[in-house]
Design goal:
Penicillin-binding protein 2a (Domain 2); 6-stranded mixed β-sheet; 24 strands; 20% strand; Beta-lactamase; 21 helices; 5-stranded antiparallel β-sheet; alpha+beta
Length: 594
C-alpha cells in the first residue's frame, strides 16, 4: 500500500514539475507566446516579394515587374485633416473618402484607399504625404510585358477570388495571382515568399516603434526566375504573318519538346491585362467577333486533312499491309455510296502518293488496315488502328505545361455502332478517315507534336513552354521519350516522300534552298465555310531543329497560305532572316477575315 502511494505521489509530482517547467519556458524563455498575446497592440505589415522574371530561350526578358503603390490608412487612428487638400493630392473623390470612413470608422486594421498608384503619381503624392501622418504607402509590383506578343503563352495576373483564398492560405484579399499561361502554371515558383515587419502601435492604431527592434521581422524572398523555351522573335514574326487571319502556328524543337512559338490568331497585347483597366479590357476583348482570348493552338480541334496521310502510311507499313514499293492503280476510289475524287490517276507509287497527295491511294491503304484478316471484325481492326494513332500523341491530352489543353476527337468503335448499328459499318463507311476527314479533330499543338514524332523517327517529348526554373529545373516528365508504335526503320521512306512534297510536289511554295524542308500539305473540309489551309513541316531533314504546324481557317488550299507561312517560320528560326521579302509582304498584308 505504501509503495502504491509513493508511486502515485511521484506521478503527481512529476506532472506538476512538467507544468511548472512549461510555464517557465512560455513566460520567461519563449517570446513567441508573448508576441501572440500582444497581437492587439502590434501591426503586421506585409512585405511583398519581387515576382520572378521570365526570359525567352535567348535571354531576352519577356515578363518583368514595374513598381506600383497602394495608399492605406487605419481609420480608427486618423486625426482630423484637410480632406479637400488630401483629395486633391491623391485624386480620391470626397464622397468616396467619406464613404470609406463611414463603413470602417472603428477599424484598427489598415484598409486600402487607392491601389496601383504608378511611379509618377506616387512621387507627386509622396512629396506632401508627410502632412497626413496617419496615411501610409505600401509598395507592390505589377507585371509588364516588354514585347506586345505571346499573350496566350505568358498569361496575366488578377486579384485573388474566393476560391483562391479558400484553396491556399498564402493569399490575402487584394493579393494578385496568375490567371492563365506561365503566370498561372508556374505561380508558386514565380510568387516568392512574403515578408513581415511588426510594429508597436498605440490604442488608436498609430505606429510607435518597431517591435523588439525587428527581432521577429521576416524578409521577403523573391520569386524564381524562369527561362521559357519561347523564341520571342520567332513568336513576334509568326503573329505578324497571321494578322488579319484566323488560325494557329505551333513550332516545336523535336529533340527536346520545347515550344519555340505558339501563335493563336487573332490575339491581343498582354499589356492590356495589367493595372486598373484589366477588367474593362478583358470584357471588351472577350466580346470581339473572332474571340481573341480563345487559344486556338490548344483548344481548336481541326480535321487534319491530307497531313494525316503520312501517319496512315506509317501504320500500314508497321502492320505489314504495304511497303514503300506498294503501287495502286487508281482513278478515284469507289466507296459504294460515293466516289472519293482524286487529282492523281493511273499507277501511283508510295512516294508519289504522299508527294502528290493521292486520296485514292490512301483510301486503298485504309481499306487494308480496317479489313485486316488478323482481326475478327472491322471494329477490332479499327480499335487497333486507333491505338496506333494515339501513340503519335494525337487525340490525347499531351500533358503540356500550358492550361486548357483539349483532348481532340478520335471516337471508339462504339460511336459507329451507335450511329450505324453494330456490325453494319465497314471501311467504306468511315473511308474519310483515310484522308484526315470525317470523325477526326486534332489541336494544332497535337499536329505539331505528331510532326515532331516523324522528324524524330518515332518518338516525342511532351511539348512544354518552360526550359528552366532558377535553382530547381523542370519536371522530369518533360525529358522522357514517348515512342510511337511504329518502328524507326519505316520513317525513312515517309520522310523522303515529305521532302519530295516540298521540292517537286504539292508543297513547292514552302521550298527554301539549302534548308532541306520536309512537309505535307492539307486542305481540310469545313462545313461552316471555305476549307482550312494546313501544312506540317520540319527541317533540316537530318537532325531536325524545328517542327511546325500551320492552320489558316477558311483560306483554301494548304499550298497557298499555310505552306509559305511554315517555310518562313522555319527559315526565320534556322537563319534568323527571311530570303523572300515579297512573300512576307503578301502574306502579312493579306486580309482573310471580314
Amino acid at each position: 500500500m505504501k509503495t502504491k502511494r509513493l508511486i502515485i505521489s511521484l506521478i503527481f509530482a512529476a506532472t506538476a514539475l512538467i507544468f511548472i517547467a512549461k510555464l517557465f519556458y512560455i513566460q520567461v524563455i519563449d517570446d513567441s507566446y508573448k508576441l501572440s498575446a500582444e497581437n492587439n497592440t502590434l501591426r503586421h505589415v506585409t512585405i511583398y516579394p519581387s515576382r520572378g522574371s521570365v526570359f525567352d530561350r535567348n535571354g531576352k526578358i519577356i515578363i518583368s515587374n514595374q513598381s506600383t503603390y497602394d495608399l492605406k490608412v487605419v481609420p480608427r487612428s486618423v486625426a482630423p485633416f484637410d480632406t479637400l487638400s488630401f483629395c486633391k493630392l491623391t485624386g480620391i473623390s470626397k464622397s468616396e473618402l467619406i464613404s470609406v470612413f463611414k463603413k470602417k470608422k472603428y477599424s484598427y486594421k489598415p484598409i486600402l484607399l487607392k491601389k496601383q498608384i504608378n511611379a509618377k503619381e506616387f512621387a507627386h503624392i509622396a512629396e506632401s504625404l508627410y502632412k497626413y501622418p496617419d496615411f501610409f504607402i505600401e509598395k507592390r509590383s505589377l507585371r509588364t510585358y516588354p514585347y506586345p506578343v505571346a499573350a496566350h503563352v505568358l498569361g496575366y495576373l488578377g486579384e485573388v477570388n474566393v476560391n483562391d483564398l479558400k484553396s491556399d492560405s498564402y493569399y490575402q484579399s487584394g493579393d494578385y495571382i496568375g490567371k492563365s499561361g506561365i503566370e498561372k502554371i508556374y505561380e508558386k515558383d514565380l510568387r516568392g515568399k512574403k515578408g513581415t515587419e511588426i510594429y508597436m502601435v498605440d490604442v488608436l492604431g498609430r505606429i510607435q516603434s518597431s517591435y523588439k527592434n525587428g527581432k521577429y521581422n521576416k524578409s521577403a524572398v523573391a520569386g524564381k526566375n524562369i527561362i521559357s523555351s519561347l523564341d520571342i522573335d520567332l513568336q513576334k514574326f509568326g503573329e505578324f504573318l497571321m494578322q488579319n487571319k484566323i488560325g494557329s502556328i505551333v513550332a516545336i524543337e523535336p529533340s527536346t519538346g520545347e515550344i519555340l512559338a505558339l501563335i493563336t490568331s487573332p490575339t491581343y497585347d498582354p499589356n492590356l491585362f495589367i493595372g486598373k483597366k484589366l477588367a474593362e479590357n478583358y470584357r471588351r476583348i472577350e466580346h470581339q467577333k473572332y474571340k481573341p482570348i480563345f487559344n486556338r493552338a490548344l483548344r481548336s480541334m481541326y480535321p487534319p486533312g491530307s497531313t494525316f496521310k503520312p501517319i496512315n502510311a506509317l501504320i500500314a507499313m508497321q502492320k505489314g499491309l504495304i511497303t514503300d514499293r506498294t503501287v495502286f492503280v487508281v482513278n478515284g476510289y469507289d466507296a459504294g455510296t460515293h466516289i472519293v475524287k482524286d487529282h492523281v490517276s493511273g499507277a501511283v507509287s508510295f512516294r508519289k502518293s504522299i508527294q502528290l497527295s493521292s486520296n485514292a491511294y490512301f483510301c486503298n491503304v485504309y481499306k487494308r488496315i480496317i479489313a485486316d484478316k488478323n482481326f475478327e471484325s472491322f471494329a477490332d481492326a479499327y480499335e487497333d488502328w486507333r491505338t496506333y494513332v494515339k501513340s503519335f500523341g494525337l487525340a490525347t491530352q499531351l500533358g503540356t505545361d500550358l492550361d486548357f489543353e483539349k483532348r481532340g476527337i478520335l471516337y471508339s468503335h462504339k460511336y459507329f455502332d451507335r450511329y450505324y448499328g453494330k456490325g453494319h459499318w465497314n471501311y467504306n463507311t468511315i473511308i474519310s478517315l483515310a484522308i484526315g476527314q470525317g470523325e477526326l479533330g486534332f489541336t494544332p499543338l497535337q499536329t505539331a507534336n505528331a510532326t515532331a514524332v516523324i522528324a524524330n523517327r518515332g518518338y516525342y517529348i511532351i511539348p512544354h513552354i518552360v526550359k528552366d526554373i532558377e535553382n530547381k529545373g523542370i519536371d522530369e516528365k518533360y525529358k522522357e521519350k514517348h515512342y510511337s508504335k511504329v518502328d524507326k526503320k519505316y520513317f525513312k521512306p515517309v520522310i523522303d516522300a515529305m521532302e519530295a512534297v516540298v521540292t517537286e510536289g504539292t508543297g513547292v511554295s514552302a521550298y527554301v534552298p539549302g534548308l532541306d524542308i520536309c512537309g505535307k500539305t492539307g486542305t481540310a473540309q469545313n462545313p461552316h465555310g471555305k476549307d482550312h489551309s494546313i501544312f506540317i513541316a520540319f527541317a533540316p531533314k537530318d537532325n531536325p531543329k524545328i517542327a511546325v504546324s500551320v492552320y489558316v481557317e477558311n483560306a483554301g488550299f494548304g499550298s497557298t497560305w499555310a505552306a509559305p507561312i511554315a517555310s518562313m517560320m522555319i527559315e526565320k528560326y534556322l537563319t534568323d532572316s527571311v530570303s523572300r521579302p515579297w512573300l512576307v509582304k503578301r502574306i502579312s498584308e493579306a486580309k482573310l477575315v471580314k
